[in-house]
Amino acid sequence: MFLTKLKAIASAVRQLVHAGNFVRALDLFSKFWNDGKLKPDCFIFPDLIKASSNLESPSLGLILHSHAIKLGYDSNSFVSTALLLFYGNFGNLEDIDTLFEGLSNRNIVTWTAAISAYSQNNQLDRSIQLFHEMRMAGISPNSFTMAALLPAFTYGREISMHLIHGLLIKCGFESDNIVSTAFICMLAKSGMLLTAHSIFDRMRLKNLVSWNSMILGYAQNGRFQESLQLFVEMQNLGTISPDSFSVVTALCCCSGLSLLGQGKEIHGYAYRAGFMEGNSLVNNAIIDMYGKCGVLEFAERVFCNLRERDVASWTALINSYGLNGKGDKAIHTFEKLKENGEISPNSVTLTTVLSACSHCCMVGEGFKYFRGMSKEFGIQPNMKHYSCMVDLLARAGFYREALKFINEMPISPGVELWQTLLGAATIGGDRLTAEIASKHLMEREPWGKHQYDCGLSLMMSPNYH
């Protein structure tokens, strides 16, 4: 009886995680754990750790890790693999080291997870070192290992693609679909879309993952039209149906191009395919699409129909209001989120709130939220938050105050901040502030001197008003 109930709970957790209902999955486990009548088995932990990773909650992952240690599951290959990937997602390199070095029975899965964790954190040398150590230990790489290793080359030293291709041939993975797909992702991240598409065209068997990789590759490089063309091409084939990942990417492209008509069609497809039922990523992408296309009524309707809202849902609606000049509604929604109490705003939420204040020249409200970030929410301002504040002051015509704000920042201002100030000061006719901003930009980007000189020349023109 207890075993049957345990299996039922584990199955329910797995289904919830696979459906993207991460909060519900963790809530179910929490009730089960606090009940204390049943001891969870090791197979439930990988799904829970995956949920914590998707919710971007390192604290939940640490709690689950401690539970696994208490139950003696930390050396289990399934659990340790999930933990390695989890720590890799958050860039906790020391924890990856400690966990992997403490494993006595390493198999191809744990080696691959460790290589993947270092690879996604731009640790090329360490990834290659582990790859060699694995082969020295008598374990041959499989296609998943090679796919895990490839992303490291994207951020590493300048390495010829021919050398990487040669490595794949040497290891016998030239025509492997999994490795080819990873190679496409790597090339796309490096902006080599022509080469990536060439490999994609040569693939004999294109599966959903390879299609999604190519669609995402174009989207990540701002080639939204080509991405959508591939999405439609995949649909028209009839042999492979787009999944929720395909839909989210396509919706993001519609957002980027403000394609309301095609966005509505994809919304309809997502509804018919059942992707909107409990899938927060799809629903949030739909809200964002309608917001960026200026149809707030539809964005509100999707938000109101959500059974469960996560922080990204609230953030998408706040952003929609801000982009469409509805600062009051953006702030009202943010206050409702705070009153909700169950969900805490994150760094991105604060960025959208500050951006909404900026678009609507709500200086007082913007500074209130900016100054309360650390104390009220435990969020330290980053460059995006500072950029919003400079934009807020500049849009409101407070150019000197914006300059003073930049000079008093505890972190070094980036190019984006000075560009924001230069643009606003040029439009507003504040020549002194524009000259100061231009000088800082030329120091940081000497190759952009011509465009900054053009901005100042425009102000000095007798026809400039």
Short description:
This protein has helices spanning 2-18, 22-35, 45-54, 58-70, 77-89, 93-101, 108-119, 124-136, 143-149, 151-155, 161-170, 177-189, 193-202, 208-220, 224-237, 244-257, 260-273, 280-292, 296-304, 311-323, 327-340, 347-359, 363-377, 383-395, 399-407, 415-428, 431-444, 449-460. The chain is globular.
Topology:
Blueprint (H helix, E strand, L loop, with lengths): L1 H17 L3 H14 L9 H10 L3 H13 L6 H13 L3 H9 L6 H12 L4 H13 L6 H7 L1 H5 L5 H10 L6 H13 L3 H10 L5 H13 L3 H14 L6 H14 L2 H14 L6 H13 L3 H9 L6 H13 L3 H14 L6 H13 L3 H15 L5 H13 L3 H9 L7 H14 L2 H14 L4 H12 L5
Folded structure, characterized:
The protein is mainly α and 465 residues long. The protein has 28 helices and no strands. Helix 3 packs parallel to helix 5 and helix 26 runs antiparallel to helix 27. The longest helix has 17 residues. It is globular and about 70 Å long. The relative contact order is 0.04. The C terminus is likely disordered.
